[in-house]
């Protein structure tokens, strides 16, 4: 019995070590994203501590962003800076083991830290988007605006009867959150949800972290896809 228990404990330790190595070696960031954090944008204050914060000189709107699974949060810096230039406070949440599933409620602390924000939006890419949807489902009184990037809510986080505003941006050549999955999960979002398809885009180009296993090649540049994402996000926020 003792020998069997030792085997179980040893197996657990090995699995935990392998998982830690895998999750703590995330995808990205690419050079372009790293340069943003080291840039000197006079109109924006950048903080890189418990979260990555892009703070404009004046703002009333805040956007919380949950990164994709096992993606370095710095990989979304270009996206965040462009929104901050439009007077939007952007907080990219750093997650335990780079997986939002381990802290889907992190938005609570962020909201508390910025009481001056009048209008909150929560968003996320891929797994991060699913966890952002989970947060909205569990906290309908705190955030009324959800933006999904190549993401959709789980069946047990059904938002179809909620009164929240939702924007869903997905890509034609996405090999992970493909069009079939987006279509099949529309039933868990409000009928008023606005959908935007990025023609020629793929999953990995929602950030600057390189290629991703299981994805399909993109037919447009990363810069072009980023521009489409930013423009549609701004349209939704400033509508």
TrEMBL record:
Keyword tags: Hydrolase, Membrane, Transmembrane, Transmembrane helix
Transmembrane regions listed in the UniProt entry: 7-24
Native source organism of the sequence: Oceanotoga teriensis
UniProt GO MF annotations: hydrolase activity
Pfam families per record: Abhydrolase_5 (PF12695)
Residue ranges of every copy of the Alpha/beta hydrolase fold-5 domain listed in the record: 62-226
Protein name (record): Alpha/beta hydrolase family protein
């Amino acid at each position: 019995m003792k020998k069997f228990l030792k085997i179980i404990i040893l197996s657990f330790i090995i699995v935990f070590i392998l998982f830690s190595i895998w999750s703590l070696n995330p995808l990205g960031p690419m050079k372009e994203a790293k340069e943003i954090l080291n840039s000197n944008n006079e109109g924006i204050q950048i903080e890189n501590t418990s979260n990555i914060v892009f703070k404009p000189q004046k703002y009333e709107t805040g956007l919380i962003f949950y990164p994709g699974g096992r993606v370095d949060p710095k990989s979304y810096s270009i996206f965040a800076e462009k929104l901050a230039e439009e007077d939007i406070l952007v907080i990219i949440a750093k997650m335990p083991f780079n997986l939002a599933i381990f802290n889907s409620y992190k938005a609570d602390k962020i909201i508390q830290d910025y009481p001056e924000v009048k209008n909150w939006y929560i968003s996320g890419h891929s797994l991060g988007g699913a966890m952002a949807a989970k947060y909205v489902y569990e906290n309908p009184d705190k955030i009324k605006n959800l933006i999904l990037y190549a993401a959709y809510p789980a069946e047990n986080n059904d938002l179809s009867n909620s009164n929240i505003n939702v924007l869903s941006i997905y890509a034609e050549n996405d090999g992970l959150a493909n069009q079939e999955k987006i279509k099949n999960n529309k039933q868990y979002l409000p009928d008023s949800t606005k959908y935007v398809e990025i023609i020629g885009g793929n999953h990995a180009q929602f950030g600057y972290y390189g290629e991703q296993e299981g994805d399909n090649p993109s037919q447009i540049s990363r810069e072009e896809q980023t521009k489409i994402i930013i423009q549609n996000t701004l349209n939704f926020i400033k509508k």
